[in-house]
Amino acid sequence: MTYAEAVRDALAVALEQDPAVIVYGLGAPDPKGVFGTTLGLQEQFGADRVFDMPTAENAMTGVGIGAALGGLRPVLTHQRLDFALLSLDQIINNAAKWRFMFGGRRGVPLTIRMILGRGWGQGPTHSQNLQAIFAHIPGLCVVSPATPADAKGLLLSAIFGQDPVIFLEHRWLHGARGETPAGDHRVPIGRAHRLRQGGDVTVVASSILSLEALQAVDHVALQGVACDLIDLRSIRPLDWDAIESSVRKTGRLLVLDPGHETGGVAGEIVARITTRCWGHLRAPPSRLAMPDAPESTSPALTLGYHVRAEHIAEAIGDLVGAPLEVSSLSARPHPHDVPGNDFQGPF
Amino acid sequence: MVHPLDSGVSRHILRDMIRIRAVEEAIADRYGEQKMRCPTHLSIGQEGPAAAVGAVLGPEDLAVSGHRAHAHYLAKGGDLPAMIAEIYGKATGCSRGNGGSMHLVDEAVGFMGSTAIVGGTVPVGVGLALSLAVRRKPGLVCIFIGDAVLETGVFYESAGFAAVRKLPVLFVCENNLYSVYSPLEVRQPAGRALSDVAAAVGLQASSGDGNDPRAAYGLLKSAADRARSGDGPQFVELATYRWREHCGPLFDNDLGYRSEAEYLVWKARDPIPRLMQELREEGALDPAWLAAAEAEIRAEIEAAFAFAEASPFPDPVLASTDIYSREIAPFP
Ligand SMILES: Cc1ncc(C[n+]2csc(CCOP(=O)(O)OP(=O)(O)O)c2C)c(N)n1
Ligand SMILES: [Mg+2]
């Protein structure tokens, strides 16, 4: 099934399994069903449990917190992460702190889905991946699955967990296909998944960059460079053991970050791994992130903006000190600002 | 019968509506060429409020808006070629291509900016009004909002401050019944008018038919006069209807979130033929004037698209400029 169908499947499983689960957000019951991820859920589970909301992101986040404290398991959906920024107060001051500021009595099992836009001129305020802001906050979990199976498994773990979870889903992944286990499939929060095994370079990725990295890693494998590709799946808590044990083996680290470079998650990983694995490093760790610039609406200014497979392969080459053939990776059958030829905007 | 509104003003409103509709339809016709690569929200069908506001505001007045801003920008006198070039992502666009359809600006005519986050420019508009008040400058700030803005917290926070300080603000709320696919019923309690809510938070509020632009003009003019004379912030709710999909060039009544019948009722209330007919009956519409206006508009639009198409894309080195002032050294 597709990633979007997997998200929908997880929501349906949760709604079916536990009457405490509610699903709401702008457009949740609308005819397009939030890119297909909520299609038919209101018909199936009723308007009491699956519902639209006013354009009141901060209040509706607080409402979710209260509902969670009152025994519900709310899932709040935002069509863009950028809209959820209006709710930073409730997320950071209430959801993330509730357990701590009341002496550990009770946490807030609230799941907040945020969709990450990209391309077709989404521009400065419809395309931001601000995972670092959320990952910076003690008390929040942040997950960013790359595959349909992980999307389903992490969403179910989030919904049935005891903590607030920011669930980041990339708009360009919604159409991606993959095997997805049926039923109540769970993926533990905080555990990475090794997508490829190799002894030369450790590549750490997440979300859509895991798919770009997969292409790059398979491409350089044909040229004799074998990489460990670690798909983080969870940004916080982060699976330090998975990265550390890999770097102890390879001695080379490349971290991919779908957020801005300065103050980003990749910087944190590079810092911590450098400190912990200093004696094992054979090359300075490196990272590829979004530039420290907002995304422009003009397609002319987004050409080199996003990290692509060819950039990753090139960075792997730099780490092993061997120039690799990467140019064939840049051939694509569609313009750079759409995930495929069937995508013609406008949203 | 002679309408109390000056026929020159009426023709100004008519011409603006025709112009806005023609620009929006030209965008819709060409959107499929995939050269305008950004989310684009059209105002086709709801030109009445924008055109009426355009006739009320003067050059010293300021305006801000949201995602559906083409009509507002044009009615305020915004540069048409710069807007079309912006939608094309070109260097000659009003935001140099960085913002697209949802980020229009033309400070020369007092259009201070439209942004893409619902409610985002409401406090900015109030702040502009504060600057007028503190600097003892004439004029008012028009804040264009949709019906969904009355769901945002920032609207109430901003309106409260504007009321406390009696700032010269004119909220113009285009109530087109929908926020994307969501009808008012899932967003507002039954029987509560938006203008009543506005009045309750300290705005002087009125409401009327946005598709009767001369009636809308009357409401807006009195509200603007009050705002200018120090009576405090005003709120005018104007009923209207968007004909096409929320975002994009197509029609989407087939999706089922609203009915074709509802659309047809509103289409029959098209503000353009309505005003034309009224002016004709009043003997205030010279066919030669109308033909000339339509020809001018057509030519202007052709020229604007030609300009946009011929304009260069921004130089890629510009992707990392305009983030800070030049005084701040860029990151390496
Ligand atoms: C804070 C925020 N939440 C959600 C959105 C998504 N969104 C874009 S336009 C829109 C509808 C706004 O409706 P309304 O104010 O009535 O304006 P209309 O589109 O009808 O002109 C929504 C919800 C957004 N841009 N910003
Ligand atoms: Mg509306």
Given the structure, what is the number of helices of chain B?
11
Provide the β-strand percentage band of chain B: 5-15%
Shape of chain B: globular
CATH second-level architecture of chain B: 3-Layer(aba) Sandwich
CATH superfamily of chain B: Thiamin diphosphate (ThDP)-binding fold, Pyr/PP domains
Number of strands of chain A: 12
- Given the C-alpha coordinates, what overall shape of chain A results? globular
Low-confidence stretches of chain B: none
Number of strands of chain B: 8
Supply Rg of chain B: 20 Å
Strand arrangement within the widest β-sheet of chain A reads 2-1-3-4-6-5-10
The helix-and-strand class of chain B reads alpha/beta
Q: Return the CATH topology of chain B.
A: Rossmann fold
Q: Overall pLDDT of chain B, averaged?
A: 96
Class of secondary structure makeup of chain A: alpha/beta
Q: List the secondary-structure elements of chain A in sequence, H or E.
A: HEHHEHEHHHEHEHEEEHEEHEHEH
Can you characterise this structure?
The complex is a heterodimer of chains A (347) and B (332). With 347 residues, chain A is α/β, with parallel strands linked by helices. Chain A has two domains: 3-173, Thiamin diphosphate (ThDP)-binding fold, Pyr/PP domains (Rossmann fold, 3-Layer(aba) Sandwich), CATH 3.40.50.970; 193-330, Rossmann fold, CATH 3.40.50.920. Helices cover 35% and strands 17% of the residues of chain A. Chain A has 13 helices and twelve strands. Chain A has a seven-stranded mixed β-sheet, with helices on both faces. In chain A, helix 1 packs parallel to helix 9 (148-159), helix 4 runs parallel beside helix 6 (88-95) and helix 11 (240-250) crosses helix 12 (265-277). Chain B has 332 residues and is α/β, with parallel strands linked by helices. The radius of gyration of chain B is 20 Å and the shape is globular. Chain B has a six-stranded parallel β-sheet, sandwiched between helices. A two-stranded antiparallel ribbon of chain B has the order 5-6. In chain B, strand 3, helix 6 (153-164) and strand 4 form a beta-alpha-beta unit. Chain B has one domain: 3-Layer(aba) Sandwich (Rossmann fold). Classes of the chains: A alpha/beta (347), B alpha/beta (332). Chains A and B meet through loops of A and loops of B. The structure holds thiamine diphosphate and magnesium ion. Thiamine diphosphate sits between chains B (67-68, 116-118, 146-149, 176, 178-180, 246) and A (26, 55, 57, 79, 83, 86).
